[in-house]
């Protein structure tokens, strides 16, 4: 990073933190600390919801996902607008009317304290794990790319997020997320614009898109159905809807965001905004990954994007040299094939296009084969350890090619994205710890100031926990997938119990409690014993919770009738 | 879902049911656009 990048990065981070602390001054009651006094306008809540969801992983990993696997990942978000509509019509008015601080508090009103405690603990485990993975992994990637000492990025992001979240609570979280999302969007647009500008003079934007299309990277809708295929239209629409229903309806880190809304209408509008903006935003991020892929047809990409592993295989000269030579030759052939595609497209000649596409397919196959050899060599040198550099692709591109100032802006966007997610999550983890566990089970009638103090200490604890668990994020592959997989292991159970609470009025506490346990067991069995895509875990878990609870309810009723008779 | 559930109406379109229909229509339009886009640049 050059001096201008540092000015942009430090200036932006300071502005965001000070702005959040200034806007949240005077949060002295639990209502203000946890729900911002329910004073937030819909647009601030909407930005907060989107910024919470868009973590640093969204930048780092989603772009890499498009580079490696194309844009079909966007289908995961097809179910989100449906979920926003369902939650707006159901959960939002129910939570507002119940006057709860947390979604789990409502479960005690509806079922019993046992179910509330179980679901709260499931949330703490799931969110505590995801938060750690997200923060550490982001820090590790930044550390490797920027060449900083270990864990510096983690410490900076974690400490700043703890600082303003502890002092200002939900209000600080919401107000900092507003500029953070704007910086994220500016960073994305700057990355796309400069990528296009960096193409050779005779390669236009549409030419670049055509090259990405020739490699199949622009395929974003796949209608063929396969249970084991992670990303197709059906798994995205149905599985993605269940994932979004669980995330926005049962995960306190999101529920708390829209509960800060001034009214039911303001909360609903914030969800509607998310339903409208999320899919195009993800499309844009994936599209940037596809354009970076096209860019690397005219500039040679590194054989491996993880510099440390590249250095390791370079040291094994006898094996490395032939692989590198094949890779270089394949790059030259692929570049020529890409130019043939561009020329054929300009001429509008279908036969030339078909010939170009065929040549490109062969060249791309050779190119991937050469890289595959390098990956196999890396695995061999690393003692069989799996290798995945999808998370390094975008940042390698940014730090190598983008001009001074733009790099700083993108780094600020990544730091901001990480901090916005961490702050929302530690805020919600602290809220559940205090409201659902500490106040409910350990100290019931303490003064408000006591709970506020405990909430602040809980915020510091969960922030520190995230930093300590950072190591878990190493070598986990495409992190956006990992976070979604971890979420899906728990969300099905949570979603099932809320569906019971909202729509099955005759189901009682014992049935709901046993239903959640059965649902979680079913999800872990599916994950451990089958290859079913993680998007289906939410559907399976939810249905098992409902089925089990209904069966237990029938048994309970029969026993009751038996006794009565 | 179709009406206002006795709640504050939305600032646009008058009823929440219409807002929901517009959001779902937007999703359908996006999917069609993505399909057209991928078809235009298919290999």
Structural overview:
- The complex is a heterodimer of chains A (565) and B (43).
- Chain A has 565 residues and is mainly alpha-helical.
- Chain A is built from 22 helices and no strands.
- Chain A has helices at residues 3-23, 30-35, 42-53, 56-69, 79-89, 91-98, 103-110, 113-146, 152-197, 205-214, 233-250, 252-259, 264-295, 307-315, 317-347, 350-381, 393-401, 406-442, 448-468, 479-503, 509-529, 535-564.
- The longest helix of chain A has 46 residues, at 152-197.
- Chain A is globular.
- The termini of chain A are far apart.
- The mean pLDDT of chain A is 87.
- Chain B is an all-alpha fold and 43 residues long.
- Chain B has a domain at 14-43.
- Chain B has one helix at residues 16-40.
- The longest helix of chain B has 25 residues, at 16-40.
- The N and C termini of chain B lie far apart (43 Å).
- Chain A binds chain B through residues 74, 78, 81-82, 84-85, 88-89, 93, 209-210, 212-216, 218-221, 233, 263-265, 268-269, 272, 275-276, 279-280, 283, 357, 360-361, and chain B through 1, 5, 7-11, 16, 19-20, 23-24, 26-27, 30-31, 34-35, 37-38, 40-43.
Produce a short descriptive summary.
The complex is a heterodimer of chains A (565) and B (43). Chain A contains 22 helices and no strands. Chain A is mostly helical and 565 residues long.
Q: What is the assigned CATH homologous superfamily of the largest domain in chain A? A: Sodium/glucose cotransporter
Helix count of chain B equals 1
Give the C-alpha Rg of chain A.
25 Å
Q: Based on CA inertia axes, which overall geometry of chain A fits?
A: globular
Count of distinct structural domains of chain A: 2
Q: The biggest beta sheet of chain B, please? A: none
State the helical fraction of chain B. Answer: 55-70%
Class from secondary-structure proportions of chain B: mainly alpha
By CATH reckoning, the class of the largest domain in chain A would read Mainly Alpha
Question: Quick one: overall form of chain B?
Answer: rod-shaped
CA gyration radius of chain B, whole angstroms: 16 Å
Mean model confidence by pLDDT of chain A = 87
Order of helices and strands of chain B: H
**Mean pLDDT score of chain B:** 85
Amino-to-carboxy terminus distance of chain A = 80 Å
Total beta strands of chain B: 0
């Amino acid at each position: 990073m050059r001096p201008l990048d540092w000015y942009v990065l430090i200036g932006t981070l300071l502005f965001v933190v000070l702005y959040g602390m200034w806007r949240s001054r005077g949060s002295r009651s639990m209502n203000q600390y946890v729900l911002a006094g329910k004073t937030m306008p819909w647009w601030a809540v909407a930005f907060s919801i989107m910024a919470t969801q868009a973590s640093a992983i969204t930048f780092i990993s989603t772009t890499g996902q498009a580079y490696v696997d194309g844009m079909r990942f966007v289908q995961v978000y097809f179910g989100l607008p449906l979920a926003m509509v369902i939650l707006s019509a159901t959960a939002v008015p129910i939570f507002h009317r119940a006057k709860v601080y947390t979604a789990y508090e409502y479960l005690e009103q509806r079922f019993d304290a046992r179910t509330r405690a179980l679901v709260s603990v499931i949330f703490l485990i799931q969110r505590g794990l995801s938060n750690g993975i997200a923060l550490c992994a982001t820090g590790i990637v930044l550390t490797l790319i920027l060449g900083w000492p270990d864990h510096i990025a983690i410490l900076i992001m974690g400490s700043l997020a703890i600082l303003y979240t502890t002092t200002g609570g939900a209000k600080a979280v919401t107000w900092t997320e507003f500029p953070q999302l704007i910086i994220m969007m500016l960073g994305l647009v700057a990355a796309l614009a400069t990528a296009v500008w960096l193409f050779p003079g005779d390669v236009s934007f549409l030419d670049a898109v055509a090259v990405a299309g020739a490699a199949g990277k622009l395929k974003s809708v796949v209608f063929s159905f396969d249970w084991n295929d992670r990303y197709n239209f059906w798994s995205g629409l149905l599985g993605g809807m269940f994932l979004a229903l669980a995330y926005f309806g049962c995960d306190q880190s999101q529920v708390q965001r829209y509960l800060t809304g001034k009214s039911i209408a303001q909360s609903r509008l914030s969800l509607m905004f998310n339903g409208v903006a999320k899919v195009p935003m993800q499309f844009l991020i994936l599209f940037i990954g596809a354009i970076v892929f096209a860019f690397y047809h005219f500039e040679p990409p590194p054989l491996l994007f993880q510099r440390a592993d590249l250095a390791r295989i370079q040291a094994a000269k006898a094996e490395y040299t032939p692989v590198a030579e094949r890779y270089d030759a394949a790059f030259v052939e692929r570049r020529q094939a890409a130019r043939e595609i561009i020329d054929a497209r300009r001429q509008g000649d279908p036969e030339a296009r078909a010939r170009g596409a065929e040549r490109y397919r062969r060249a791309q196959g050779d190119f991937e084969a050469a890289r595959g050899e390098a990956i196999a060599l890396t695995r061999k040198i690393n003692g069989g350890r799996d290798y995945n550099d999808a998370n390094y692709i975008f940042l390698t591109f940014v730090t190598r090619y983008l001009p001074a100032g733009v790099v700083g802006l993108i780094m600020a966007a990544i730091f901001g994205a990480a901090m916005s997610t961490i702050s929302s999550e530690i805020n919600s983890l602290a809220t559940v710890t205090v409201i659902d566990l500490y106040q409910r089970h350990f100290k019931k009638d303490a003064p408000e100031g006591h709970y506020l103090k405990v909430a602040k200490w809980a915020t510091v604890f969960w922030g520190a926990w995230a930093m300590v668990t950072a190591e878990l994020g190493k070598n986990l592959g495409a992190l956006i997938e990992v976070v979604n997989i971890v979420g899906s292991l728990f969300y099905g159970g949570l979603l099932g119990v809320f569906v019971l609470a909202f729509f099955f009025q005759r189901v009682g506490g014992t049935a709901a409690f046993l239903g959640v346990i059965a649902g979680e067991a079913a999800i872990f069995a599916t994950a451990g014993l089958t290859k079913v895509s993680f998007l289906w875990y939410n559907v399976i878990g939810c249905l098992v919770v409902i089925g089990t609870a209904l069966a237990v309810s029938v048994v309970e009723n029969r026993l009751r009738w038996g006794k009565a008779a | 879902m179709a009406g206002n559930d006795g709640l504050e109406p939305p600032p646009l379109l008058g009823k929440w049911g219409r807002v929901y229909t517009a959001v779902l229509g937007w999703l359908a339009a996006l999917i069609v656009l993505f399909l057209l886009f991928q078809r235009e640049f298919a290999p």
